[in-house]
Write a structure and sequence with these properties.
This is Ring-cleaving dioxygenase. InterPro entries: Extradiol_RC_dioxygenase, Glyas_Bleomycin-R_OHBP_Dase, Glyas_Fos-R_dOase_dom, VOC_core. Keywords: Dioxygenase, Oxidoreductase. The protein has a single domain, classed as Roll (2,3-Dihydroxybiphenyl 1,2-Dioxygenase, domain 1). Helix content is 16%, strand content 34%. The chain has 5 helices and 17 strands. It has helices at 18-28, 91-100, 163-173, 225-237, 296-302; strands at residues 8-15, 32-39, 42-51, 60-65, 78-87, 105-110, 113-119, 125-131, 152-159, 177-181, 185-189, 197-201, 215-222, 246-247, 252-257, 263-268, 286-287. Strands 14-15-16-13-1-4-3-2-17 form a 9-stranded mixed sheet. It is globular, with a radius of gyration of 18 Å.
């Protein structure tokens, strides 16, 4: 039986200043900072996770923010646009909100669907789409009430250096179904109801360059460790070279780079973020894996203090 992912688990990107990153994703977009930890491979850098009230699979946008980071260039081998799903009928609210907070945007259409596109302060390309699917977020913050809050990922627009190869991975490896196409784009759909619409730019694009304002990887959902092991074998059988399973504390991960240049990850839905903090405490304290606890004092001294705060524009 062919394996089928339920869609996006999380998207991870590079960013510049940490406070600027928090102000945009929590302050402007109203997402919850559900985990404040470090890059396990570079402990002097935060790893910040934003999502719905618990950062459930399909909602977690994560960042490695580093002040003074080299700016990247969006291009082939990357996620071109990260799509957030908002409740149907709320786009007017979001356009008014972006206007109020001086975030430039443009309205566009792709494959018959309307998108509001904008960029974060580092230039990361984002878009909003109204979707009926997916449950409402229960998180309200600043000027974003829960009934208008971002539900999670709507999907992504992928930029490939070899689109035909990427099509093969999306359909034959990840089990997505091709559901629409036109002269410029092809649309695929995953089995889940969030993070499930993946568009591919039909023409090959030249390589992008990693750095602030670009996506590092896009992660796809696996149910649990046994399912992830099956995914790893599945990826191997299709000729790719997946990494061993890596413990990321809140999920386990397997990485492989597809032939169109995009770094893919298979991540488990469990155990999630309510493991080392209670629901009410999520995102409040720097959480470290056990092997870094003995270095906590040094690690915290090297991290720039950050605060989740209501923006001035929402205080009037």
């Amino acid at each position: 039986m062919m394996k089928k992912t339920n869609g996006i688990h999380h998207v991870t990107a590079f960013a510049g200043g940490p406070q600027q990153n928090v102000d945009f994703y929590a302050g402007v977009l109203g997402l919850r900072l559900v985990k404040k930890t470090i890059n396990f491979d570079a402990p002097e850098v935060y790893h910040l996770y934003f999502g719905n009230e618990t950062g459930s699979p399909g909602t977690a946008m994560t960042f490695f923010p580093s002040r003074g980071a080299r700016k990247g260039k969006v291009g082939g081998g990357q996620v071109g646009y990260t799509t957030f799903a908002v409740p149907a009928g709320t786009m007017d609210f979001w356009e008014e909100r972006l206007d109020k907070l001086d975030v430039p945007y443009n309205v566009t259409e792709r494959l018959g669907e309307r998108f509001v596109q904008f960029a974060d302060p580092d230039g990361l390309q984002l878009e909003l789409a109204e979707r009926e699917e997916g449950r409402l977020s229960e998180w309200a913050f600043g000027g974003v009430p829960a009934d208008k809050a971002i539900k999670g990922f709507g999907g992504a627009l992928l930029y490939s250096i070899a689109p035909d190869q990427t099509i093969g991975v999306l359909t034959n490896v990840l089990g997505l179904d091709k559901v629409a196409e036109d002269a410029d784009y092809i649309r695929f759909r995953a089995a889940g109801d969030i993070g499930n619409v993946i568009d591919l730019h039909r023409a090959a694009l030249p390589w992008g360059a990693g750095g602030a304002g670009t996506v590092h990887h896009i992660a796809w959902r696996a149910d649990n460790r046994p399912d992830q092991e099956e995914w790893r074998e599945h990826v191997l059988k299709h000729g790719f070279q997946p990494t061993p399973v890596v413990d990321r504390q809140y999920f386990t991960a397997v990485y492989f780079r597809e032939a169109g240049g995009i770094l893919f990850e298979i991540a488990t839905d469990d155990p999630g973020f309510v493991t080392d903090e209670t629901f009410d405490e999520l995102g409040g304290k720097v959480q470290l894996p056990e092997w870094y606890e003995k270095h906590r004092a040094l690690i915290e001294r090297n991290l720039e203090p950050i605060t989740v705060r209501v923006l001035e524009g929402d205080q009037a």
